[in-house]
Amino acid sequence: MNDAICLLVNPTAGRGRGGRYAAPTARVLRDAGHPVRAVVGLDASDALRRAREAVAGGARALVAVGGDGLVSLALHALAGTSTPLGIVAAGTGDDFARALGLPLRAPAAAAERTAAALAAGTATPVDLGRVGDRWFGTVLAAGFDSRVNDRANRMNRPRGRLRYDLAILAELATLRPVPFRLRLDEGPWQELDATLVAVGNGTSYGGGLRIAPGARTDDGRFDITVVGACSRRTLLRVLPSVRHGGHVDHPLVTVVRAARVTLAAAVTTAYADGDPLGGLPLTARTVPGAVRVLGADG
């Protein structure tokens, strides 16, 4: 495994794109003179174990070929190490790749960016968020958006984006503000009623919903978007503007910045990078330069 580039592949990502993208990715990297080995887990925990073994075994780089779920596994294998990460985005969301200006659904272009960065010996330091021993690269969500995730995960069908659209409609029917307690860095506790609180290390979640449009992955701070208590009608008016980040101009929306945030609320599950973190309270902090990414803008 020493000095090889390891491809961490999710064959089922993006309805099979992960599997289809592995071959052109490997071809570009081999043509650039790099030995390549594939790492495919039986499930998420097995994939993470194999990725960590590859890094410990001296892999020159770990290249994730898949969506945000696979990238999240790669982040957990790489955070705090000197081994760089390459990303060949093949999922339905690809929000971490989007935040870093990497090619989307273009395996050859993404692999070429990775190969060029390896040849130049450059990798961009990227901040990550951390909650306990869990890392995240994009957004930690609590409130309406995390309840949508909860509901969608309980639904067996339909598949794809439509399932989330139906989950949104169902949650709108029971919309209610949540009493939050919020603490930024070493400041005082704040009490507020909110529809949702989103802690952005990256700019977007849900496949390009720019919930934290001003977030940067190199400033050591989160952009924390708070949508105040609002009616269904108001939320329906605000939601479409999240696609381009225009919601931050609405009077019910507040954006604050902090390196550490503690959230507390009753019966609220937090999600980060699309995966459940568990119930509140929790504390998230930024870790500057926690991972080095090949070919990222920066």
From TrEMBL:
<dbReference type="InterPro" id="IPR001206">
    <property type="entry name" value="Diacylglycerol_kinase_cat_dom"/>
</dbReference>
<keyword id="KW-0594">Phospholipid biosynthesis</keyword>
<keyword id="KW-0547">Nucleotide-binding</keyword>
<dbReference type="InterPro" id="IPR045540">
    <property type="entry name" value="YegS/DAGK_C"/>
</dbReference>
<comment type="similarity">
    <text>Belongs to the diacylglycerol/lipid kinase family.</text>
</comment>
<keyword id="KW-0418">Kinase</keyword>
<keyword id="KW-0443">Lipid metabolism</keyword>
<protein>
    <submittedName>
        <fullName>YegS/Rv2252/BmrU family lipid kinase</fullName>
    </submittedName>
</protein>
<keyword id="KW-0460">Magnesium</keyword>
<feature type="domain" description="DAGKc">
    <location>
        <begin position="1"/>
        <end position="135"/>
    </location>
</feature>
<dbReference type="Pfam" id="PF00781">
    <property type="entry name" value="DAGK_cat"/>
</dbReference>
<keyword id="KW-1208">Phospholipid metabolism</keyword>
<keyword id="KW-0444">Lipid biosynthesis</keyword>
<dbReference type="Pfam" id="PF19279">
    <property type="entry name" value="YegS_C"/>
</dbReference>
<dbReference type="InterPro" id="IPR050187">
    <property type="entry name" value="Lipid_Phosphate_FormReg"/>
</dbReference>
<keyword id="KW-0808">Transferase</keyword>
<dbReference type="GO" id="GO:0016301">
    <property type="term" value="F:kinase activity"/>
</dbReference>
<keyword id="KW-0479">Metal-binding</keyword>
<dbReference type="InterPro" id="IPR005218">
    <property type="entry name" value="Diacylglycerol/lipid_kinase"/>
</dbReference>
<keyword id="KW-0067">ATP-binding</keyword>
<dbReference type="InterPro" id="IPR017438">
    <property type="entry name" value="ATP-NAD_kinase_N"/>
</dbReference>
<dbReference type="InterPro" id="IPR016064">
    <property type="entry name" value="NAD/diacylglycerol_kinase_sf"/>
</dbReference>
